[in-house]
Structure formats: C-alpha cells, structure tokens
Amino acid sequence: MSTPASPLRTLLDRRKSGYSLEAPFYTDPAIFEQDIKHIFGQHWIYVGPEVMVPEEGDFVTIEIGRTSVLIVRSDDMQVNAFHNVCRHRGSRLCTEHKGSVGNLVCPYHQWTYNLEGTLLFAEHMGESFNRSGHNLKPVHVRNIAGLIFICLAENPPKDIEDLAAAMTPYIAPHRISDCKIATQIDIIEDCNWKLTMENNRECYHCRGNHPELTISLYEYGFGYAPTPENCEGIDQYNQILEQRHQQWEAMGLPCRELDHLDDCITGFRTQRLPLDRAGQSQTMNAKVASSKLLADFQQADLGALSFWTQPNSWHHFMSDHIVTFTVLPISAEKTMVRTTWLVHKDAVEGRDYNLKDLTAVWVATNAQDRALVERSQQGIRSDAYEPGPYSPFTEMLVEKFCNWYTNRLSALAE
C-alpha cells in the first residue's frame, strides 16, 4: 500500500502554473514552519549592507524564526556571523538589535568570546575543560560587493558564487563600503511573508496605488499589455532604454537584464532602468536627494539599478543613494520589512541631504504596500478565496517567485 501524500505535498503537487498559491500557503502555521526550516533555513538570506557594522566590535542581531544570528565586525575588519547562543547553557549573548563590544561576554556567567567566536574565558570549569571545543557556532556568511548574505544550512548552496560573479560588476561601482546608513526603518506587516514578496515582484498595482513612486518610474518600465493605443509609447520607452544602456555601458556600468529568479537555487535578477522626469533618483522630484554622489560618480542621471534575490530582498542603486530591503518572517501572518537608506559616508545631513527628502518616496510606498498586503491577507482568509490568474504582461516575476518557492519546497520538504 502506498503512503498517503502529506497535506503540503498534495498542495505542492496540484499547484497550478500561472496562478496564485492556495490559501494554506499564506495562513497555515505548519506550512510556515516548513518555510522557516527549508526556505529560510537552507538558502542564502540577505540581512543587510556591510556598513551596518562599520567599525571593529560593531554587531547586529538578525532573527529568523527561533534562530538569532549575530553579525559582528572583527578586529581584522572581517564580517563574521555566529549563532547568538552561549555555549555554556544557551543564554542569548546579545539581546539588543545593535551595539558595539570589545569581546562577546555572556551576561549570565560571563563566558567570554573574541570577535572571531573563540572562547577566551570560562571561570570555574576545571583543568580538564576543553575550551577549544566550546567556541561559538559559526553561520555561513558571504559579502557580495558590500551586501551581506547568511545561510543557516550546514552545506549552503554553492551557486552563491555564480550570483557573486554576475552581480559584483553591477553593484561594485556604487561602493557600498564607502557609504553610511542615513536611516533604517522597520515595519511590521500583518500578512504572510510571501505576500510581501509577491507584491514587490510586480508593478501592476503601482499606477493606482503609488503616486510618489511613479513620479520617477517610466509607465512602461515594468510590463504593459500592448494595445493599439499604447504601442507608440512603448516604442518610445524602448528607444530611451537602449540609448541609456549604450551610454551607461560606455561609462563601464553594466545594465542589461540578468534573470535567474526561478532557474537557480540562489535565485536573482537585475537590470538598470532609466528614470522619468529629471531621471536622477527615486525622489519626489526625480532629482538627487544628496548632492554628494556615491563613489566617484560625476553624472547624476544614472537611472536605478534594481536587484532582486530569492527569497527575501530587493534593492535600488542610484547615483546619490541606495535603498535596500530585507524581509524576515515572524509568524504565518506577520512579517518584518526592514528598509535601509545609504548615502556617501562623507555626506552631511542638513548640508548634502535632507532625511525627509531622501526617504519620502519609500516611506509612502511602504505604507501603501503594507495596506495592500494586509488587505490581501484578510481576503485570503475567506472561504471564498481561490487562486487567481497572473497577468502574463505585468506579473511575470510573481510567477517566477512562486515557481522558485514551490520548486525549492518540493525539493527539500518531507
């Protein structure tokens, strides 16, 4: 007699291509636990820019399900990652989200570790105690042109090196290591993390919901169903796109689309697109928010380099600032979205940039998106919900996200 398929396996097997997922994927705590175990526990997770720990001894803590990870800058300026768990009796080492330390000292019994995770001091343990066998448990960490990814798996996906090789030429010109964090804002959305990610992967909703964001976005830049009425506009946009790509490539800025969202374990996509109006930045007037440009850029209208990673991030790189987003699940119906704005390390607030101008577009857009995804979560709880069809013109990347997610869960789940 064959073994009956698990409820999750049944849902995965009957997933209909080109349609949204069934309700349990967004509401069921048991599936959420599988997401934490197999998606966030076995893949490379973006956690933040390296300048979140700019100096020796700086640390941040990252919460992934029940796991707390400590990201720390060591004395040799390397970024290390450890499980935030003392090897004595399991106490959390650092309870604050961020701070600075000389060594990592457990607040319970003062076991002390250096910034490479080596146990230096453990009082009252006797002469036979093997100190070297009780160092902090490391977490795999990869710095890609200033973006920090971690992986909780014992054997992380090796194709992170393919992502690094492909993306470093795109990201490196912006010199994240020469940036600083202007501000960082966390918001909690009452929805499943996949709704947050799906909403990000399309701009079908942008025109009717994001008046601030669409000031600088070209109407045809993120997909549009061609009609006799808009064919001329689409052709004009494509001409602008090709002209700008040629200009940027002549400057040494890679810009062509790379799309591996659903054909790699470590899925990613990138493309540099022109901006509308002043064409300089994602601001309320499409001009730069910071007069101090990044790196050694001499030209402000460099468009916006977009970079998406599976399962939990997206990023926008402009001439004057960078906006980077990480999504971390809290529960089946609660998600944290962390937005970080980066400017040149020498930019001075009040002189080179105004924080309100810098953040206005994405503060507004995040609030609007929060309302949208929470409304979606409410609707999906209804017995009337059933998977609906994706637009083949504007929701292609949503389909690729769902393909990646269901394929990876199918490969790893019991």
TrEMBL record:
Keywords from UniProt, A to Z, are: 2Fe-2S, Dioxygenase, Iron, Iron-sulfur, Metal-binding, Oxidoreductase
Please give the PANTHER family that the UniProt record associates with this protein.
Answer: CHOLINE MONOOXYGENASE, CHLOROPLASTIC
Name of the protein described by the UniProt record: Phenylpropionate dioxygenase and related ring-hydroxylating dioxygenases large terminal subunit
Q: Which Gene3D superfamilies match?
A: Naphthalene 1,2-dioxygenase Alpha Subunit, Chain A, domain 1 (3.90.380.10), Rieske [2Fe-2S] iron-sulphur domain (2.102.10.10)
Names of the cofactor(s): Fe cation
Q: PROSITE patterns recorded for this chain?
A: RIESKE
Q: Which family does it belong to?
A: Belongs to the bacterial ring-hydroxylating dioxygenase alpha subunit family.
Question: Could you tell me the superkingdom of the organism this chain comes from?
Answer: Bacteria
The GO terms describing molecular function are:
2 iron, 2 sulfur cluster binding; dioxygenase activity; iron ion binding
Q: Where is the Rieske domain?
A: 44-150
Q: Does the keyword DNA-binding apply?
A: no
Q: Which organism is it from?
A: Solimicrobium silvestre
